[in-house]
User: Fold this.
Amino acid sequence: MEMLSLAKELKSNAYPGRGIVLGKTPDGTKAAAVYFIMGRSENSRNRIFVEDGEGIRTQAFDESKLTDPSLIIYAPVKVLGNKTIVTNGDQTSTIYDGMDRQLTFEQSLRCREFEPDEPNYTPRISGIMHIENGSYNYALSILKSNHGNPDSCCRYTFAYENPLPGEGRFIHTYMHDGNPLPSFEGEPKPVEILDDIDGMADLVWTNLDRDNKVSLFVRYIDIASGNYETRIINKNQ
Assistant:
């Protein structure tokens, strides 16, 4: 597949929904993770990312305006030993618990499917980064309804061994804005990863739709040492 411009992919899509990018920096020394959330409703927009141990969680910015927390309050990022889990919902905990019991990433998600938010049936997108003994691999998953039919769940896992320097893979919940919102199609898109974490955060945040963007998380993990840097940007301050 042709390498795509992440900036262009974001700028040309007013509503990709929630998105995950995993990859490796051009110098080959760091594993990179990006997760962003967007919102169209007041409830969805009333959120921020906050650090929670080695991971993060979503939190209502104004508690008095929180109406339904079921699909918007969760821990998008958790760390289990040398594994970093990134998802768009409470399946982060499902993966964490499953892998803690020696299940695989894919096996852990077998008990989950797309979100029950009729008529969108928002896909559950998930990522796992594994760093061990100076090596790095990652995988992405999407669980989505079969063409909007809630009786049928399609499960796809994409695994990337020894990812190439400077390349990431981008998966998001929706193809574009709409009613209902159309689920992501195809395999994760190859996009560029920058060496500089602040440059990467700026690239994503600047090109997300101004009205719909809510929060952004970026983490770079040193493959040799496991040490990491994190950036969090919230529209609500």
User: Anything to note?
Assistant: The first strand starts at residue 19 and ends at 24. The chain has a mean pLDDT of 97. The domain at 6-234 is CATH 3.60.20.20 (Glutamine Phosphoribosylpyrophosphate, subunit 1, domain 1). The helical segments are 6-11, 42-45, 91-100, 105-108, 197-207.
